[in-house]
Amino acid sequence: PTIYVVTPTYARLVQKAELTRLSLTLLHVPRLHWIVVEDSPQPTPLVRDLLAVSGLAYTHLHVPTPKDMKLQEKDPTWLKPRGVEQRNEAMRWLREMAAAAAVEQAVVYFADDDNTYSLKVFEEMRFTQRVSVWPVGLVGGMRYEGPVVENGKVVRFHTGWRPSRPFPIDMAGFAVSLRLVVAHPGARFDRSAQIGFLESSLLQGLVTMKELEPKADMCTKILVWHTRTEKPKIKREEIMQKQGMGSDLNVEV
Ligand code: UGA
Ligand code: MN
Fold first, then answer.
1. From CA 88, how far away is CA 82, in angstroms rounded?
2. What is the ipTM of this complex?
3. CATH number, residue 81
4. Ligand that lies nearest to the alpha carbon of residue 85, given by its number in the listed order
5. What span, in angstroms and rounded, lies between the C-alpha atoms of 76 and 80?
6. Is 245 contained in some domain?
7. DSSP states of 23-43 as a string?
8. Total domain count for the chain?
9. What are the pocket residues of ligand 1 if the criterion is a CB atom closer than 6 Å to any ligand atom?
10. Tens-place pLDDT, residues 97-148
11. Which of 29, 159, 186, 191 has most Cβ atoms within 10 angstroms of its Cβ?
């Protein structure tokens, strides 16, 4: 089966660096199709050019997050869910593609542009029947969070926060079969989901805990990390710009 990797992304100083790093990981994975969905009203040249030379099979989509749902510069990062419209747009494209090309033997993975992925995590998810799950490192204020497996079944979740959530797992900790996405045309990420309930908003419409397929040695191995990139400080750039000596803005960073 092909793995469709869905990556929402938005313009910021580190965007090209993030997408470059992720693309280099994905190049090592066979039978992979990268769906990059820009949070923008138009596709941007930066992303278009990066994809064109990436060497990957890809689809380039875009949809802007509505203004009232968009995180503002001064907001704390957890205030609003991120990448929601973009992941839903990718699922729309996938359902349409699956119908047109009669593809169903495939897996969908929501891979944010800033996380760190081992190559192994992709092979773990490749034979997903419905929804496969595994732990995620460096997330939720914990060393890791993940499903707890007993007798081959997920019985609960190891999490430090709101264990009452239906599926307290990070976006990077599950993959869904395309067949299931197609079979549930109404399943989507809920933009008005409470903080931490975004993953649950999709998964609730697709599976029950009993049906989850534990991967990564019964969820005992960490194969993906919820890393976050430090925001670069460009104070000096601003000072230099005021003196008319700022960096050339025609140079893409
Ligand atoms: C955590 C989860 O790991 C995310 O999958 C989840 O979407 C997010 O919480 C949430 O609750 O919304 P976190 O590291 O805090 O993630 O989020 P980001 O990495 O900042 O954003 C997730 C994805 O959305 C990234 O691929 C990012 O490029 C994209 N994004 C972010 C946008 O497309 N637009 C934005 O305005 C912000
Ligand atoms: Mn992130």
1. 12
2. 0.98
3. 3.90.550.10
4. 1
5. 9
6. no
7. HHHHTTSSSEEEEEEESSSS-
8. 1
9. 7-10, 39, 65, 70-71, 77, 81-83, 86, 112-114, 170-171, 198, 226, 228
10. 999 988 879 999 999 999 999 999 999 999 999 999 999 999 999 999 999 9
11. 159
